[in-house]
Structure formats: structure tokens, C-alpha cells
Specification:
The protein is α/β, with parallel strands linked by helices. The protein contains 15 helices and 14 strands. Strands 3-4-14-9-10-13 form a six-stranded mixed β-sheet, sandwiched between helices. Strands 7-6-5-8 form a four-stranded parallel β-sheet, sandwiched between helices. A two-stranded antiparallel ribbon has the order 1-2. β5, α5 and β6 form a beta-alpha-beta unit. α13 crosses α14. The longest helix has 18 residues. It is globular and about 55 Å long. The protein starts with 14 loop residues before the first strand and ends in a 13-residue tail after the last helix. The structure holds pyridoxal-5'-phosphate (PLP).
């Protein structure tokens, strides 16, 4: 498993500087405290660690390769590019790292039921998979709109024995599914563990999910030292809630010379509602400017139990968001990212839907790898920067998931003459 790094943050109350914490109804305070205690005990327990290491290896497929992308390196003519192949994991994305950790923890806590929220369905599928493997009952909350756009993942969850509950409130997407899952947890907390899918929500989730995902960077560090005898110059990852990004970055945070670039969904443009850029400014090419159109923008606020940057209109109403990639389509961001941005440790930027789709096509053609549209955002930023880098520079991109789930969208945007329907999309 991840070296359970002796991080100094968050503090005892779950704060990353000004961000994080625990902003929940009174009824959830005790369950969150119980969860934190159980997690702290588990992480220093050899039996728990051995079980998790075993499942990550034999069930999920770790370690994942760190692959030198020779074709892409040659194509871009700049830095040496490595891909961390989380797309090769069981269920197709990094989500399984966290689900196995929390699933084992639930068993230790004597909980027989897992609940989860899901947007695109990747986290729901990973949770349903772990529930089936560990013999637990599973309920997944999913917005009605997402159920319609991600039907295949709904079938996968059902086949794995999970109940998928449609959520018809609000925008009928991820944010509303989280609300429903929290409501369920309040009612059934005796029997139920809430398996949150990213580094969001109330303490201890941002810390715990980060630690389960930090296996990504821990492996990368050893692999790049073996391959290149030195640390990389920069790391690239996409940011939805922020778990695959912090998972890659975490073990390098103290290495001041390692630059980190986190890429958000710039969607269709800078207008509020058209993107999911919380820590950067879409379309400006300048991650330092947070102000957006229409008087609305991302600013600190509370969503789903944590204090962080939240996209909101000028009246403080949570904004709708848009991204071609459902996994990046969320109005808040993990509190540790808000902190890392404030400290200037990580650079946050955004690319558009179009740029991400083009990057997915480039990787497919140059490497024979079809990425999910989420990490295609990280690749799109790399496509802009790599040609300007020196040939000695070493770059690692977190390829957080594979593109199978996005084939419908990719098919609609194939250039004419390649079987696609460009111009109609
Ligand atoms: C869910 C998902 C993401 C976004 O979630 P993070 O918590 O930001 O990592 C990114 N990539 C893939 C493939 C996903 O499934």
C-alpha cells in the first residue's frame, strides 16, 4: 500500500490552512469521529495493511506501469513523457484504490452496507465491485440525468448486485446524488459506511482518500528513479474532486523542484455554468485570475461538509457546471487543493472540451491508448507545453482512467471521413 506518509496536514480538526474541516449536521459528528478513529487505528495495523496491499496487487492490478510514451515524446518534440497507467486497473480508473481501502475499513468497523454517490458511474462501479468482492450490500445514488447519459455503468452496477437509486432533485447530477447519500447515511449510520469517492466532504474524507490514492505517487517515485535516476521536472493531472491529482502529487510535495500542474474542466467557455474551473480561470490561459463572467465565480464557501472553493453566482447560489467529462463536472474542489493553490505549490489551469477531445485523439493515434476524457484534460495542457520544453526534461502525466466509458462522445466527434459525425455534434 501507499507509504502512509507522515503528513503534517490536515491538522487534528481536518484543516488545510483555512480550508477543510467538518461542517455537517450534529447527527453526523459522531459517525465522522468514529470513522476517523477507525481509520487511524487501521492505518497502523499490519493486518489491515497486508490485506489492502494484497487486494491492490491481486484484485486491482497494482503496481501500474510507468510507461515511457516514446511516440508522443517524438510527436511533440520536447520533454520526455511518461504515463502513469492507472487506466490499466480493474474497473478502468484509479477509483478502485480508494474503494478497496474504505471497503476493508467498513468490514473492520462491522458495517455490512456501503453507500456511494456517483456522477459518470466510475465511482459507483468501483464501489459496487468492492461490495461484491467483500460480500457487502451496496446502494449507489445517481442523478437521473447521469443515469440517462451513462446507462452502461448503471447496468454494470446492477450486474454487480448494487441497487442504483435515481435522484430527481436539483440538477439531477452528482451534487444532488451526494446530498441523497448524506441523507441516507444520517438515517442508517449504524449499519452503513458512506464510501465517498474523492478528496471532498467533511474530515476525515479528504485526508483518508488522499492517503489511499497516494499509492500512485509513491509507486511513480520509485519507478522514475529506476528509469531515469532522478525525479521528474513536472507532474500533470486532471482535477475533479482532486483525488487522482493529489494521489500523484502527495509524495513529491516536499521536492521543491518538482513542478505540479493540475488541470480543470474549462468546458465551453468562461461564462458561469459553462465550465468547472474552481481554482483557475477558463479561457484566460492564466491560472491566477479567479473572476468569471456574470458576477459569478468560485470563492470560498461550504459544500458537502467542507470549506473550500465553490462555484457560485453573485447571490451565493451553487452554480451549475459543464464539462464534456462527467468526472470533472463538480462545483467544489477538495480543500487541500484550495490550500495548495493559495500556497502556490501547485499551478491550476483549465482546458476546454475541444482541447481535451483533441488530446484524446492524439494519444490514441500516437500511442495506441484511448484515455478517459478526464485525463485527456491533463494531456491537453501537456500538448501545449511539451514542445517548448527541453529534451532532457522529464514529465509524468497521470492517466487516471481508460476511454471505454467515453466512446459515445468520442465517436460523435471523430473528424469527417473517419466514420464520425463531426459538424453534427
Ligand atoms: C472520477 C474520475 C476523475 C476525477 O476525480 P478526481 O477525484 O479528481 O480524481 C478523473 N479521472 C477519472 C478517470 C475518473 O474516473
Amino acid at each position: 500500500m501507499a507509504r502512509l506518509a507522515g503528513a503534517t496536514l490536515p491538522d487534528a480538526r481536518g484543516h488545510f490552512g483555512a480550508y477543510g474541516g467538518r461542517f455537517v449536521p450534529e447527527t453526523l459528528m459522531a459517525p465522522l469521529e468514529e470513522l476517523e478513529r477507525a481509520y487511524r487505528r487501521a492505518r497502523s495495523d499490519r493486518g489491515f495493511r497486508r490485506a489492502l496491499v494484497g487486494l491492490l496487487r491481486d484484485f486491482a492490478g497494482r503496481p501500474t506501469p510507468l510507461y515511457f510514451a516514446e511516440g508522443l515524446t517524438r510527436h511533440l518534440g520536447g520533454a520526455r513523457i511518461y504515463l502513469k497507467r492507472e487506466d490499466l486497473l480493474h474497473t478502468g480508473a484509479h477509483k478502485i484504490n480508494n474503494c478497496l481501502g474504505q471497503g476493508l475499513l467498513a468490514v473492520r468497523m462491522g458495517k455490512r452496507r456501503l453507500i456511494a454517490e456517483t456522477g459518470a458511474g466510475q465511482h459507483g462501479v468501483a464501489t459496487a465491485t468492492v461490495a461484491a468482492h467483500l460480500g457487502l450490500v451496496c446502494t449507489v445514488y445517481m442523478g437521473e440525468k447521469d443515469m440517462a447519459r451513462q446507462r452502461l455503468n448503471v447496468f454494470r452496477m446492477q450486474l454487480l448486485g448494487a441497487e442504483v437509486v435515481p435522484v430527481a432533485s436539483g440538477s439531477r447530477t452528482l451534487k444532488d446524488a451526494i446530498n441523497e447519500a448524506m441523507r441516507d447515511w444520517v438515517t442508517n449510520v449504524e449499519s452503513t459506511h458512506y464510501l465517498l469517492g474523492s478528496v471532498c466532504g467533511a474530515h476525515p474524507y479528504p485526508m483518508m482518500v488522499r492517503n489511499f490514492q497516494s499509492v500512485i505517487g509513491w509507486e511513480t517515485r520509485q519507478q522514475i528513479l529506476r528509469a531515469e535516476k532522478r525525479l521528474p521536472d513536472s507532474l500533470f493531472a486532471c482535477v475533479g474532486g482532486g483525488s487522482n491529482a493529489i494521489g500523484l502529487f502527495y509524495d513529491f510535495l516536499r521536492d521543491r523542484r518538482v513542478k505540479m500542474i493540475a488541470v480543470e474542466a474549462g468546458g465551453r467557455g468562461p461564462e458561469l455554468g459553462q465550465h468547472a474551473a474552481r481554482l483557475s480561470s477558463p479561457g484566460s490561459g492564466d491560472g491566477s485570475r479567479l473572476r468569471q463572467g456574470s458576477g459569478g465565480r468560485a470563492r470560498p464557501g461550504v459544500l458537502h461538509g467542507t470549506y473550500t472553493y465553490v462555484l457560485q453566482d453573485k447571490h451565493g447560489q451553487i452554480s451549475t457546471t459543464h464539462s464534456v467529462s462527467a468526472g470533472l463536472d463538480y462545483p467544489a474542489v477538495g480543500p487541500e487543493h484550495a490550500y495548495l493553490r493559495e500556497r502556490g505549490r501547485v499551478e491550476y489551469t483549465a482546458v476546454s472540451d475541444e482541447e481535451a477531445l483533441e488530446a484524446a485523439r492524439v494519444l490514441a493515434r500516437q500511442e495506441g491508448i484511448i484515455p478517459a476524457l478526464e485525463p485527456a484534460h491533463a494531456l491537453a495542457e501537456l500538448l501545449k507545453r511539451a514542445p517548448k520544453m527541453r529534451p532532457k526534461e522529464i514529465v509524468v502525466v497521470n492517466l487516471s482512467g481508460r476511454g471505454d466509458k467515453d466512446m459515445d462522445i468520442l465517436a460523435k466527434t471523430l473528424p469527417p471521413g473517419r466514420g464520425g459525425q463531426a459538424g453534427q455534434a
